[in-house]
Amino acid sequence: KAGVTQTPRYLIKTRGQQVTLSCSPISGHRSVSWYQQTPGQGLQFLFEYFSETQRNKGNFPGRFSGRQFSNSRSEMNVSTLELGDSALYLCASSLGGEAYEQYFGPGTRLTVT
Amino acid sequence: KQEVTQIPAALSVPEGENLVLNCSFTDSAIYNLQWFRQDPGKGLTSLLLIQSSQREQTSGRLNASLDKSSGRSTLYIAASQPGDSATYLCAVRGPGANNLFFGTGTRLTVIP
Hints:
A: mainly beta, seven-stranded mixed beta sheet, four-stranded antiparallel beta sheet, about 55% strand, B: six-stranded mixed beta sheet
Protein backbone atom coordinates (compact mmCIF):
# COMPACT_ATOMS: atom_id res chain seq x y z
CA LYS A 1 0.00 0.00 0.00
CA ALA A 2 1.37 3.42 -0.91
CA GLY A 3 2.12 5.77 1.95
CA VAL A 4 1.06 9.35 2.49
CA THR A 5 2.31 11.61 -0.28
CA GLN A 6 2.79 15.35 -0.17
CA THR A 7 3.47 17.77 -2.98
CA PRO A 8 5.47 19.76 -3.58
CA ARG A 9 8.37 18.69 -1.39
CA TYR A 10 10.04 22.08 -1.41
CA LEU A 11 8.75 25.59 -1.96
CA ILE A 12 10.29 29.03 -1.86
CA LYS A 13 7.88 31.95 -1.68
CA THR A 14 8.06 35.66 -1.02
CA ARG A 15 6.36 37.50 1.82
CA GLY A 16 2.80 38.43 0.95
CA GLN A 17 2.30 35.61 -1.53
CA GLN A 18 0.02 32.66 -0.97
CA VAL A 19 0.74 28.96 -1.22
CA THR A 20 -1.19 25.72 -1.57
CA LEU A 21 0.11 22.40 -0.33
CA SER A 22 -1.35 19.03 -1.21
CA CYS A 23 -1.64 15.76 0.67
CA SER A 24 -2.82 12.37 -0.58
CA PRO A 25 -3.64 9.97 2.26
CA ILE A 26 -3.19 6.23 2.37
CA SER A 27 -5.90 4.49 0.37
CA GLY A 28 -8.96 3.93 2.54
CA HIS A 29 -8.02 6.58 5.10
CA ARG A 30 -10.66 9.24 5.57
CA SER A 31 -8.94 11.49 8.08
CA VAL A 32 -6.21 13.94 7.16
CA SER A 33 -4.47 16.16 9.70
CA TRP A 34 -1.97 18.94 9.11
CA TYR A 35 0.89 19.94 11.37
CA GLN A 36 3.50 22.68 11.27
CA GLN A 37 7.00 21.93 12.50
CA THR A 38 9.49 24.65 13.36
CA PRO A 39 12.69 24.54 15.42
CA GLY A 40 11.26 26.94 17.99
CA GLN A 41 7.72 25.63 18.42
CA GLY A 42 8.10 21.98 17.53
CA LEU A 43 5.12 20.19 16.03
CA GLN A 44 1.85 22.10 16.21
CA PHE A 45 -1.54 20.96 15.05
CA LEU A 46 -3.22 23.01 12.32
CA PHE A 47 -6.47 21.21 11.48
CA GLU A 48 -8.04 17.86 10.75
CA TYR A 49 -10.50 16.86 8.07
CA PHE A 50 -12.73 13.83 7.98
CA SER A 51 -15.10 13.07 5.13
CA GLU A 52 -14.67 16.58 3.71
CA THR A 53 -15.53 18.26 7.03
CA GLN A 54 -13.15 20.09 9.31
CA ARG A 55 -13.43 18.30 12.65
CA ASN A 56 -10.81 20.04 14.68
CA LYS A 57 -8.71 23.18 14.42
CA GLY A 58 -5.56 24.33 16.15
CA ASN A 59 -4.63 27.79 17.28
CA PHE A 60 -3.49 29.35 14.01
CA PRO A 61 -4.64 32.57 12.33
CA GLY A 62 -7.28 32.56 9.63
CA ARG A 63 -4.57 32.87 6.96
CA PHE A 64 -4.22 29.12 7.32
CA SER A 65 -7.06 27.20 5.76
CA GLY A 66 -7.68 23.79 4.32
CA ARG A 67 -10.12 21.56 2.58
CA GLN A 68 -10.69 17.93 1.78
CA PHE A 69 -12.04 16.44 -1.39
CA SER A 70 -14.37 13.50 -1.86
CA ASN A 71 -11.39 11.20 -2.58
CA SER A 72 -9.93 12.22 0.83
CA ARG A 73 -7.09 14.20 -0.70
CA SER A 74 -6.51 17.41 1.19
CA GLU A 75 -5.04 20.80 0.51
CA MET A 76 -3.94 23.52 2.85
CA ASN A 77 -3.57 27.13 1.87
CA VAL A 78 -1.61 29.89 3.51
CA SER A 79 -2.37 33.42 2.37
CA THR A 80 -0.30 36.57 2.88
CA LEU A 81 2.82 34.65 3.77
CA GLU A 82 5.02 35.87 6.61
CA LEU A 83 8.65 35.01 7.33
CA GLY A 84 7.49 33.06 10.38
CA ASP A 85 5.52 30.68 8.18
CA SER A 86 8.77 29.08 7.08
CA ALA A 87 8.46 25.53 8.33
CA LEU A 88 8.08 21.88 7.50
CA TYR A 89 4.40 21.16 6.90
CA LEU A 90 3.42 17.58 7.61
CA CYS A 91 0.21 15.82 6.89
CA ALA A 92 -0.96 12.63 8.53
CA SER A 93 -3.68 10.21 7.60
CA SER A 94 -5.62 7.65 9.56
CA LEU A 95 -8.79 5.62 9.33
CA GLY A 96 -10.46 8.32 11.38
CA GLY A 97 -11.26 7.06 14.85
CA GLU A 98 -9.34 8.13 17.93
CA ALA A 99 -7.84 4.68 18.39
CA TYR A 100 -6.20 4.54 15.02
CA GLU A 101 -2.54 5.04 14.23
CA GLN A 102 -1.52 8.18 12.40
CA TYR A 103 0.79 7.87 9.39
CA PHE A 104 2.79 10.86 8.28
CA GLY A 105 3.97 11.99 4.88
CA PRO A 106 7.47 13.27 4.04
CA GLY A 107 6.43 16.89 4.46
CA THR A 108 6.65 20.06 2.41
CA ARG A 109 9.51 22.38 3.29
CA LEU A 110 8.27 25.96 2.86
CA THR A 111 10.75 28.82 2.90
CA VAL A 112 9.43 32.37 2.93
CA THR A 113 11.90 35.10 1.93
CA LYS B 1 -4.02 21.96 27.88
CA GLN B 2 -1.99 18.78 27.44
CA GLU B 3 1.77 19.26 27.70
CA VAL B 4 4.25 16.59 26.69
CA THR B 5 7.87 16.58 27.82
CA GLN B 6 10.73 14.41 26.68
CA ILE B 7 13.93 13.93 28.60
CA PRO B 8 16.75 14.01 27.73
CA ALA B 9 16.72 16.41 24.79
CA ALA B 10 19.80 14.72 23.36
CA LEU B 11 21.53 11.44 24.01
CA SER B 12 24.74 9.96 22.66
CA VAL B 13 25.59 6.29 23.21
CA PRO B 14 28.10 3.78 21.81
CA GLU B 15 26.82 1.12 19.47
CA GLY B 16 25.40 -1.95 21.17
CA GLU B 17 24.11 -0.22 24.27
CA ASN B 18 20.56 -0.56 25.50
CA LEU B 19 18.87 2.76 26.14
CA VAL B 20 15.67 4.30 27.45
CA LEU B 21 13.90 7.42 26.25
CA ASN B 22 11.37 9.11 28.48
CA CYS B 23 8.09 10.87 27.79
CA SER B 24 5.77 12.49 30.31
CA PHE B 25 2.40 14.14 29.87
CA THR B 26 0.35 16.34 32.16
CA ASP B 27 -3.18 15.08 31.52
CA SER B 28 -3.54 11.35 32.15
CA ALA B 29 -6.90 11.20 30.34
CA ILE B 30 -5.32 10.09 27.09
CA TYR B 31 -6.72 7.79 24.47
CA ASN B 32 -3.41 6.51 23.21
CA LEU B 33 0.28 7.32 22.86
CA GLN B 34 2.39 6.98 19.76
CA TRP B 35 6.17 6.94 19.35
CA PHE B 36 7.74 8.24 16.15
CA ARG B 37 11.21 8.66 14.73
CA GLN B 38 12.23 11.50 12.49
CA ASP B 39 15.37 11.63 10.39
CA PRO B 40 16.77 15.09 9.61
CA GLY B 41 14.54 17.00 7.20
CA LYS B 42 12.16 14.06 6.82
CA GLY B 43 8.67 13.14 7.86
CA LEU B 44 7.69 11.05 10.88
CA THR B 45 7.84 7.27 10.92
CA SER B 46 5.45 5.60 13.33
CA LEU B 47 7.20 3.13 15.61
CA LEU B 48 4.65 2.00 18.17
CA LEU B 49 1.09 2.83 19.18
CA ILE B 50 -0.08 2.07 22.72
CA GLN B 51 -3.77 2.29 23.54
CA SER B 52 -4.71 3.61 26.98
CA SER B 53 -5.81 0.13 28.07
CA GLN B 54 -2.41 -1.37 27.23
CA ARG B 55 0.75 -1.41 29.30
CA GLU B 56 3.30 -2.01 26.58
CA GLN B 57 3.94 -2.73 22.94
CA THR B 58 6.91 -4.38 21.28
CA SER B 59 8.32 -4.28 17.78
CA GLY B 60 11.66 -5.90 17.12
CA ARG B 61 14.29 -4.22 19.28
CA LEU B 62 11.81 -1.59 20.48
CA ASN B 63 9.60 -1.81 23.53
CA ALA B 64 7.33 0.98 24.68
CA SER B 65 5.59 1.06 28.03
CA LEU B 66 2.76 3.24 29.25
CA ASP B 67 1.82 4.19 32.81
CA LYS B 68 -1.23 6.36 32.25
CA SER B 69 -1.89 7.10 35.90
CA SER B 70 1.56 8.63 36.39
CA GLY B 71 1.60 10.27 32.98
CA ARG B 72 4.68 8.48 31.72
CA SER B 73 5.90 6.39 28.83
CA THR B 74 9.30 4.95 28.04
CA LEU B 75 10.79 3.71 24.80
CA TYR B 76 13.41 1.03 25.27
CA ILE B 77 15.84 0.37 22.42
CA ALA B 78 17.90 -2.79 22.70
CA ALA B 79 21.34 -3.26 21.20
CA SER B 80 21.45 0.17 19.59
CA GLN B 81 22.84 0.58 16.07
CA PRO B 82 24.13 3.62 14.15
CA GLY B 83 21.00 3.41 11.99
CA ASP B 84 18.93 4.18 15.11
CA SER B 85 20.35 7.71 15.11
CA ALA B 86 17.38 10.05 14.72
CA THR B 87 15.03 12.23 16.73
CA TYR B 88 12.42 10.29 18.66
CA LEU B 89 9.09 11.92 19.36
CA CYS B 90 6.23 10.83 21.54
CA ALA B 91 2.70 12.09 21.02
CA VAL B 92 -0.52 11.64 22.96
CA ARG B 93 -4.14 11.85 21.92
CA GLY B 94 -6.83 12.70 24.44
CA PRO B 95 -10.50 11.72 24.49
CA GLY B 96 -12.48 13.74 22.01
CA ALA B 97 -9.35 15.18 20.45
CA ASN B 98 -8.56 14.23 16.91
CA ASN B 99 -5.08 15.67 17.06
CA LEU B 100 -1.81 14.57 18.60
CA PHE B 101 0.07 16.58 21.21
CA PHE B 102 3.79 16.17 20.60
CA GLY B 103 6.79 16.27 22.85
CA THR B 104 9.89 18.20 21.87
CA GLY B 105 11.80 15.05 21.04
CA THR B 106 15.03 13.31 22.02
CA ARG B 107 17.85 13.46 19.52
CA LEU B 108 19.68 10.14 19.63
CA THR B 109 23.17 9.58 18.26
CA VAL B 110 24.59 6.05 18.24
CA ILE B 111 28.35 6.11 17.82
CA PRO B 112 29.90 3.24 15.83
